[in-house]
């Protein structure tokens, strides 16, 4: 989850703001506020049991009259309860509108009984009446013979007109689908347009005319004020070589090694880039950033995962409108409050945001384009994809369909001002749910689900995106994500120019909010997505590697890689025996992670029990939940929470030298990268990237976020205290660390960490043993021979095919004797034996006793001779 900044005031522009509205005469609103009654299908009203008196008459009132409701004994049918589990205990009433349903839905609806009046939630009946036909409709701009047809779904609208380049054009409504459309002439191409939607708006209790951009926009003017009539198949939008683009060979998700990267972080402070902060920075082959990406690709990285690059709502898109901090930030002390104060003053108006605030889902963000006013952003996004492909990397896009930047009558609300009360998920009282941080959407509703599928397919076909990471995927129905998978699988090179089956999918399968525990539908959560081939982020091994959790009050809580028991940092952490027990349990979690978080993998845990992965506890949940490698995505850090270097800065003993911090970092990264299944690393982590201890840098500007590719510029640590809003409580811990120059590593540790990580990545991606396909394969090939009551605290030893991997997190060398291997020849893997890390080269193996000796804070891979 992430907290977004309050939206900045709209910038005055030559064109009016998208979504401006004109109010018509107000209609009286019901005496009580909210919308507590649900019209779930053409003939059924779901009514809360505690609302009014069941035996008194119930009716549904609309602008032209009312419908009497008849109580249905027994409540909702079994099928209705299955479809709407959160309404299962509601009373059911039959409504017979005598064919007037569609008319009634275009105005005010009030449910009344016994002096009680409340609004009505209508998504269910809209789906029942319209979804079958509307689900087949082609929405947005479509071109045939050069002539565009524009279509928008607005079933509750009284009137929809097209505002095209200063004139108004009538649109025709299809009664069966609720889609309004109009076909124009060739000269409509590239013209700005909006829809004028006259509709009842429950949030203001009025009929309004909203002037709104197209939810299915293919192009936009600057700051998203207008949509543009643009055909993505127009050759003018295709960079040279686009139709012939050859991607690196597709990598199955279970083998994927992913770099998570924010477009602006990548190049904003790269002096060698000709296009800092832009899509085109990925075409600067000679830049430091592109050289580094190529080195990672050569070592085995297969995908770059781009943080949101769709049109989002919190950055002024024109450079001239973007503010910059007016302080000499570099001159301020490393532990000063002044940097964050200065950055904070312009945060709402600068060029920076992570972008988890969707405005238009299927248009590239304009602030990353050289000119945001028009379709150049399309061409340059495609050039970015080309640049990554040329570096040996496929492109994953971070998509955020679970919420919108605004709802209701807000100027930046698009969906909710076209079909009010439909696209956003409503709580029991009719308020918009905000558990995601913002206005939640409702992909369980047919047309929001369709928008998700259509948008993803467009990115895959028209932009050649190779994968999608779903933000807060657990807020989607599993069925919706499977529908995305099915639609992608139908794409072929012959018909669509892409192999949809090669497109990878993964997401955040967290379980929380109003949808938690499948309250409204079967969610796309960790446990529910097992066996689908769609991965979810695995927090189990992440926390065991780092220590503690993302929301600890004391950030010094240690874990496997940060010195728990083996190198205590002096924080209150329990007795040595308690620390030892916690460490051994962390090692069990890491073992489960190394299997790919498999639920049914059997091994001996640190207490000597024979257990499955699902039997190992993670905060009351099973550590193992995957059905096969590829169901879980391993990682030690990502954009959320402190970067790995910053987490280790808090957790390692303060006196730990920079060289040892670098080694701990590589060990932590390896615990994820050497697991079965895919793994992800935040870009720059191999370079010890720091955000100056900022745990939520979504709006912290370039100063805290930019990646420093040149080690002479440092790693970002010591750029001042992190922004107060999300970090003030940690300042007492942060200040002394930031002030310590020993924690700002020089080029030696930075280069060493990056090179050592690339060596391990080469081993991971060239040794077939790391690429098992099934639980049975993993069970047969992978074991933890020293696990049990006698295992060494701080060391995990894994036997994998003809390899033995020893992860020694202790600061001192450790020996691991595997008696069964006595007399078998092993040697340090050639990649490490001839690699960059001089310390790992001292690792040794004694064949006579089957004993492996590994230096402190080192990952050593041995291969059978």
CATH structural fold name of the domain at 30-122: Immunoglobulin-like
Q: Note the beta-strand portion.
A: 15-25%
State mean pLDDT (0 to 100 scale).
Answer: 95
In helices, the fraction of residues equals: 10-25%
CATH architecture of the domain at 30-122: Sandwich
* Strands ordered across the widest β-sheet: 18-19-22-25-26-27-32-33
- Shape by Cα distribution: globular
Structural class by secondary-structure content: alpha+beta
- Report the span from N to C terminus: 48 Å
Number of helices: 22
Residue stretches low in confidence (pLDDT < 50, at least 5 long) are 3-20, 22-32
Question: Describe the biggest sheet?
Answer: 8 strands, parallel, barrel
CATH homologous superfamily of the domain at 30-122? Answer: Rab geranylgeranyltransferase alpha-subunit, insert domain
| Gyration radius, rounded | 28 Å
Your description of this structure?
This protein is an alpha+beta fold and 865 residues long. Among the domains are: 30-122, Sandwich (Immunoglobulin-like); 137-212, Sandwich (Immunoglobulin-like), CATH 2.60.40.10; 782-864, Immunoglobulin-like (Sandwich). Helix content is 24%, strand content 22%. It has 22 helices and 41 strands. It has an eight-stranded parallel β-barrel. The chain has a seven-stranded mixed beta barrel with strand order 2-3-6-5-4-7-8. The chain is globular, with a radius of gyration of 28 Å. InterPro entries: GH (IPR017853), Glyco_hydro_13_N (IPR004193), Glyco_hydro_b (IPR013780), Ig-like_fold (IPR013783), Ig_E-set (IPR014756), Pullul_strch (IPR011839), Pullul_strch_C (IPR024561), Pullulanase_N2 (IPR040671). Keywords: Signal. This is Pullulanase-type alpha-1,6-glucosidase. Residues 35-128 form the Pullulanase N2 domain.
């Amino acid at each position: 989850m992430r907290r977004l900044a309050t939206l900045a005031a709209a910038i005055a522009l030559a064109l009016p703001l998208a979504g401006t509205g004109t109010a018509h005469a107000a209609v009286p609103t019901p005496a009580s506020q909210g919308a507590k009654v649900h019209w779930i299908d053409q003939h059924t009203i779901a009514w809360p049991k505690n609302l009014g008196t069941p035996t008194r008459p119930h009716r549904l009132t609309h602008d032209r009259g009312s419908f009497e409701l008849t109580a249905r004994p027994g409540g909702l049918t079994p099928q209705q309860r299955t479809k709407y589990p959160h309404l299962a205990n509601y009373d059911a009433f039959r409504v017979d509108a005598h064919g007037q349903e569609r008319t009634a839905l275009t105005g005010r609806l009030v449910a009344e009984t016994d002096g009680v009046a409340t609004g009505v939630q209508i998504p269910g009946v809209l789906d029942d009446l319209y979804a079958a036909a509307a689900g087949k409709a082609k929405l947005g701009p479509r071109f045939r013979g050069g002539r565009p047809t524009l279509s928008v779904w607005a079933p509750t609208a009284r009137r929809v007109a097209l505002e095209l380049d200063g004139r108004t054009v009538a649109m025709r409504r299809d009664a069966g689908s609720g889609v309004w459309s109009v076909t124009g002439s060739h000269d409509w191409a590239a013209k700005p347009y909006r829809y004028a939607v006259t509709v009842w708006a429950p949030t203001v209790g009025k009929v309004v005319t909203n002037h709104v951009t197209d939810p299915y926009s293919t192009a936009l003017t600057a700051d998203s004020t207008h949509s543009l009539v643009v055909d993505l198949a127009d050759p003018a939008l295709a960079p040279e070589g686009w139709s012939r683009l050859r991607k690196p060979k597709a990598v199955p998700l279970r083998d994927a090694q992913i770099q998570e990267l924010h477009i602006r972080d990548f190049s904003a402070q790269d002096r060698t880039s000709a296009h800092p902060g832009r899509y085109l920075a990925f075409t600067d082959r000679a830049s430091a950033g592109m050289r580094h990406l190529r080195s990672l690709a050569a070592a085995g990285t297969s995908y770059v995962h781009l943080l949101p690059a769709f049109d989002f709502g919190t950055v002024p898109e024109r450079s001239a409108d973007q503010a910059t901090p007016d302080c000499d930030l570099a001159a301020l002390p490393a532990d000063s409050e002044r940097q964050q104060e200065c950055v904070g003053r312009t945060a709402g108006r600068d060029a920076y945001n992570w972008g988890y605030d969707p405005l238009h889902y299927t248009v590239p963000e304009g602030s990353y384009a050289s000119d945001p006013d028009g379709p150049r952003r399309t061409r340059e996004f495609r050039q970015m994809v080309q640049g990554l492909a040329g570096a040996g990397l496929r492109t994953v896009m971070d998509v955020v369909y679970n919420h919108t930047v605004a709802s209701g009558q807000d100027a930046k609300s698009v969906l909710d001002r076209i079909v009010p009360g439909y696209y956003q998920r409503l709580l029991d009282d009719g308020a918009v749910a905000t558990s995601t941080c913002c206005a939640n959407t409702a992909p369980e509703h047919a047309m929001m689900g369709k928008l998700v599928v259509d948008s993803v397919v467009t990115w895959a076909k028209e932009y050649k995106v190779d994968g999608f990471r779903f933000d807060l995927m657990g807020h989607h129905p599993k069925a919706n994500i499977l529908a995305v998978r099915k639609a992608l699988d139908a794409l072929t090179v012959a018909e669509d120019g892409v192999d949809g089956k090669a497109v990878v999918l993964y997401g955040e399968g967290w379980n929380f909010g109003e949808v938690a525990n499948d309250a409204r539908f079967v969610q796309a959560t960790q446990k529910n997505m097992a066996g689908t081939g769609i991965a979810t982020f695995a927090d189990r091994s992440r926390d065991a590697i780092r220590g503690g959790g993302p929301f600890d009050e004391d950030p010094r809580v240690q874990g496997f890689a940060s010195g728990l028991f083996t190198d205590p940092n002096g924080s209150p952490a329990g007795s040595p025996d308690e620390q030892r027990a916690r460490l051994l349990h962390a090692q069990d979690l890491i073992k489960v992670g190394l299997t790919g978080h498999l639920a049914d993998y059997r091994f001996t845990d640190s207490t000597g029990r024979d257990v499955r992965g699902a039997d190992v506890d993670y905060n009351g949940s099973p550590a193992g939940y995957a059905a096969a490698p590829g169901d879980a995505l391993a990682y030690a850090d990502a954009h959320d929470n402190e970067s790995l270097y910053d987490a280790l800065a808090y957790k390692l003993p303060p006196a730990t030298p920079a060289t040892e911090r670098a080694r701990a970092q590589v060990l932590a990264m390896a615990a994820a990268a050497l697991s079965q299944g895919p793994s992800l690393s935040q870009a720059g982590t191999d370079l010890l990237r720091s955000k100056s201890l900022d745990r939520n840098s979504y709006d912290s500007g370039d100063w805290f976020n930019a990646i420093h590719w040149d080690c002479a510029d440092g790693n970002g640590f010591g750029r001042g205290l992190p922004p107060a809003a999300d970090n003030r409580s940690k300042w007492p811990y942060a200040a002394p660390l930031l002030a310590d120059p020993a924690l700002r590593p020089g080029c030696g540790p930075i280069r060493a960490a990056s090179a050592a990580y690339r060596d391990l990545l080469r081993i991971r991606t060239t040794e077939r043993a790391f690429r098992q396909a099934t639980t049975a394969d993993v069970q047969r090939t992978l074991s933890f021979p020293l696990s049990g009551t006698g295992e060494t605290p701080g060391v995990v030893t894994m036997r994998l095919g003809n390899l033995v991997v020893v992860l020694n997190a202790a600061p001192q060398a450790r020996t691991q004797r595997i008696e069964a291997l006595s007399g078998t020849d092993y040697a340090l893997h050639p990649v490490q034996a001839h690699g960059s890390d001089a310390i790992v080269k001292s690792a040794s193996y004694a064949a006579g006793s089957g004993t492996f000796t590994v230096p402190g804070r080192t990952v050593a891979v041995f291969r059978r001779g």
